[in-house]
């Protein structure tokens, strides 16, 4: 298995190389430039052309790509045109914030979604099942950003239970107070993101549990006198997890990439909000770094999903 994982990782290397070329060309193809209107609205065209020249933006694309690639192998992703700071430092700071939110939302999503989906499938057509199905239908019908805005308005502004912006409170030092402040800032967006994300898990798991309950191997186990609790624990639940584990890797790496909607609505300084800001300001270095990172995370998500499926079902072997 480890040889297979190593081979898959080595295959990712040329894929990342091709992806880097495409990302670099698409970023350069965007209209506009990172200097017009970002320094001073009254900046002369001559000064803007001078900035473009000294930053190498007038060089042929292959020369710009080669320079960027050389710096990349030295761990340098360039300077941000908007923040005038190294891209590695900016992405690193935002990645920590996104990691906090992603871990909280992921744990909450599966901690709620798995037992709720199992309950709905096991107690089909009960009152609880009808309530869960109604929740999933209504949640799917409402756009995600509407749920975020409603949650922000009710629990952030009207009730004042949670902070509405940022990732940590002002005038908060380090240590335990900083941890508490970070938790306070991720609770509301994390809960809203989890309540929306668990809908797919609940629906998939409910359907799989119902199908597995009526399968031949479950009837055989029941006819042999195996307790219902053990049947669901060792047969139904494990087999019902396969469709969910098939996408688990994508879900985890997707959350690590940053939720654009969540971070934008809550002004949460993570990688999603950084990506939106970089597009608005034509910050090519940041755009290239983030899209390349998202591509790598997607490739790793594929491998992670295969590994999780192989762990859940020993019959499956990754090749």
TrEMBL record:
It is found in: Cell membrane. Its main location: membrane. It is a multi-pass membrane protein. One of its GO terms (biological process) is transmembrane transport. It holds the Pfam family BPD_transp_1_N. Residues 95-305 form the ABC transmembrane type-1 domain. One of its GO terms (cellular component) is plasma membrane. The chain crosses the membrane at residues 9-27, 99-120, 140-163, 183-205, 241-261, 284-312. Belongs to the binding-protein-dependent transport system permease family. This is ABC-type dipeptide oligopeptide nickel transport system, permease component. The gene is oppB.
């Amino acid at each position: 298995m480890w040889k297979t994982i190593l081979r898959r990782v080595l295959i990712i290397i040329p894929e990342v190389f091709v992806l880097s070329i495409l990302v670099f060309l698409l970023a350069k193809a965007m209209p506009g430039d990172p200097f017009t209107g970002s320094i001073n609205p009254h900046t002369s065209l001559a000064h803007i052309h001078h900035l473009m020249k000294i930053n190498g933006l007038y060089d042929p694309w292959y020369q710009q790509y080669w320079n960027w690639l050389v710096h990349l192998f030295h761990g340098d992703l360039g300077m941000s045109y908007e923040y005038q700071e190294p891209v590695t430092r900016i992405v690193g700071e935002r990645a920590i914030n996104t990691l906090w939110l992603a871990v909280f939302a992921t744990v909450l999503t599966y901690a709620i979604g798995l037992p709720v989906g199992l309950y709905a499938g096991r107690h089909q057509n009960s009152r609880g099942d009808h309530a869960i199905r109604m929740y999933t239908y209504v949640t799917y019908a409402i756009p995600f950003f509407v749920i975020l805005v409603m949650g922000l308005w009710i629990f952030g502004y009207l009730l004042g239970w949670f902070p509405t912006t940022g990732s940590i409170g002002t005038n908060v030092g380090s240590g335990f107070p900083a941890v508490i402040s970070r938790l306070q800032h991720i609770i509301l967006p994390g809960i809203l993101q989890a309540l929306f994300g668990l809908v797919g898990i609940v629906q998939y798991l409910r359907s799989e549990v119902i199908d597995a309950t009526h399968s031949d191997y479950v009837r055989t186990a029941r006819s042999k006198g195996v307790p219902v609790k053990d049947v669901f624990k060792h047969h139904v639940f494990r087999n019902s997890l396969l469709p969910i584990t098939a996408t688990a890797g994508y879900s985890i790496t997707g959350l690590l990439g940053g939720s654009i909607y969540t971070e934008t609505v809550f002004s949460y300084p993570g990688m999603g909000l950084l990506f939106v800001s970089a597009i608005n300001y034509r910050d090519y270095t940041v755009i290239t770094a983030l899209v390349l990172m998202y591509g790598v995370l997607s490739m790793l998500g594929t491998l992670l999903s295969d590994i999780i499926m192989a762990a859940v079902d020993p019959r499956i072997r990754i090749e």
